[in-house]
Amino acid sequence: MKLKKNYIHSNKRQIFRLIPTDTDKLIIEERETDKKQAFFNCLNIESGKKIFNDFQLDEKYWVGIEDTYRDVIFFHKFGKPDLPQHHGIIAFDINLQKTLWENEEHSFLFIKEGKVYSYRQKFEGREFFTIDWQTGKVMEELGTDAASLNLIREEVIASKYISGYKFPEVYDQSAGLNNNADEILKTLREKHLITGKIEFVLMNDLLMFNFHEIAGRNLLNNIFKAVDLSNEKYILEEALNSGTQAFAPDSFFVKDDLLFLLIDRTKLGVYKIINNIVQ
Fold first, then answer.
1. Is 178's pLDDT higher than 90?
2. Average pLDDT, the chain
């Protein structure tokens, strides 16, 4: 089993979100909190080739991404800078690199089968609608029944994150791992001065995990390792964070045949997995 990096991405800014699309692209949201600046980048998910870099909306900071659909990103603003309530919808075409439409009155709920489900906040409650994802034209007025829409939204979210994603699980002795994987994780605490939880992903003979090792007074190192269980050989070791004072969860995940590693919160390493072998 061999390891080969597909690419490393870094703009030397803190990475806030990674969003793989269903069209083999990767959206990366980066922020400079001290300067109140948000930047958005789009790469080919396999090669790392840049499609666009350092894109900003007119509002430079109080913005975020709701979702993507095909090659369109749906951005939102915030009702007020100090409140988390999302407001407005901005549809941005990745390939044309331009805004297709914007709706200041509606807020995004979810998208399904080419329809953006949205709501308009009224004093007495919410009114719900569907909007054409390409044109922004209102298609249907759905009334005020929030319960039925919440059920559909939960189904959409569940199907999106079941398909192809593997997120780390917290290890304990009841995890039900095979003997090799279980033994490797159990003996970690004997070899390392570990604090906190061990998180892992198991793909047949490929065991990937990270943990926090005490590095000194009030300092931690966040370590990632990958093991070929067929021969118990360590095939990758990476310090994801060194000398940090806080735990850094959500440091890696797998989508389809790609492994994503977040390094120092400012760099992304991407590895391809073929037949459960990282190349």
1. no
2. 90
Global confidence as pTM:
0.90
Domain segments of the chain as ranges = 11-164, 169-278
Mention every residue, 6+ apart, whose C-beta is less than 8 A from residue 59.
Answer: 77
Distance CA 226, CA 272 (A): 13
Residue 136 has pLDDT above 80, yes or no: yes
Mean pLDDT in residue range 252-273: 94
**Fold observed for domain 11-164:** Lipocalin (2.40.128)
